[in-house]
Amino acid sequence: MPVVSMKELLDRALAGRYAVGAFNIVNDLTIEAVLAAAVAERAPVILQTSVKTVLSYGREPLSGIFRALAADVPVPVALHLDHCPDRELISECLAGGWNSVLFDAHELDVEENLRQTTEVVAEARKTGAHVEGEIEGIQGVEDGLGSDAAPAVYPLDVAIEFIRHTGVDCFAPAIGNAHGQYHRAPELDAQRVSDLVAATGVPMALHGGSGLSDAQFTDLIARGCAKVNISTALKESFMKSGAEFLEAAAVGGKWDPPSLFAHQRAAVTAMARRHIQLFGSTGRAR
């Protein structure tokens, strides 16, 4: 199945009040694992690439790996660039086949953020791509971007005007969520999600999903979080399963890389399937 528009995936999810999992892949093995989970669950899926991953692989090699692995997958897939403040890299990825981007300009004042996001939306439209926007940073550091300081939260009408003026296809609100693992149970402003969706009709993106309770996920998705980002849980599944396998290999004196890769792939696939089921997107592929 060809790469599908993120807007198409999220508009359907919003209407059906389920969410599409957006998994921050780190290499070809994790791409394979997440796609295998989506196929097993017959679910749409978004593969996200951080700026760090794009720069590590190079835009063209990473795009090539994605397209080779996704070419014959029988479920809808979108390729998304996560948290990117670099306009030049956004342009390169849009030209290189990414069909959605998050222009992360929250460090700019709202007026300048609005102006530049409007330009990014216009640029994306030329390639048929879509844009996620934000005006408030999400607490926590992810792949070298972000801050542990609590973000400023703007009045609701400021966020609504931003969404309407820029024409973004998805919006990432700050509701007390955070990147990385939570040190204590977060107090979320779920009503903000309901209010933004009611005022704009635009799907919301939930960042900092790893570590939220099942009840929190279910509530936020019902309110209109149609895209849920999963990064920390993927990295932990990938690295902890690898560490577990290597510890056993050292004890047994058996060093078999293909078995290591299969073990990690299975762990990431299981993690992704659990989230897809929780988000209600099982059986939604079409």
UniProtKB/TrEMBL annotation:
Keyword DNA-binding in annotation: no
Residues annotated to bind dihydroxyacetone phosphate: 180, 208-210, 229-232
Q: Which domain of life is it from?
A: Bacteria
The answer to whether keyword Ribosomal protein applies is no
Which residues does the record give as Zn(2+) 1 binding sites? 83, 179, 207
The Gene Ontology biological process annotation of the record reads: carbohydrate metabolic process
UniProt cross-references to Pfam families, sorted A to Z: F_bP_aldolase (PF01116)
Q: Which positions are annotated as binding Zn(2+) 2?
A: 104, 134
**Molecular function via GO:** aldehyde-lyase activity; zinc ion binding
| Residues forming the catalytic site | 82 (proton donor)
Which coenzymes or cofactors are required? Zn(2+)
Q: How is the cofactor bound?
A: Binds 2 Zn(2+) ions per subunit. One is catalytic and the other provides a structural contribution.
Q: Keywords assigned by UniProt?
A: Metal-binding, Zinc
Q: Which PANTHER family match?
A: D-TAGATOSE-1,6-BISPHOSPHATE ALDOLASE, D-TAGATOSE-1,6-BISPHOSPHATE ALDOLASE SUBUNIT GATY-RELATED
- Name of this protein: Ketose-bisphosphate aldolase
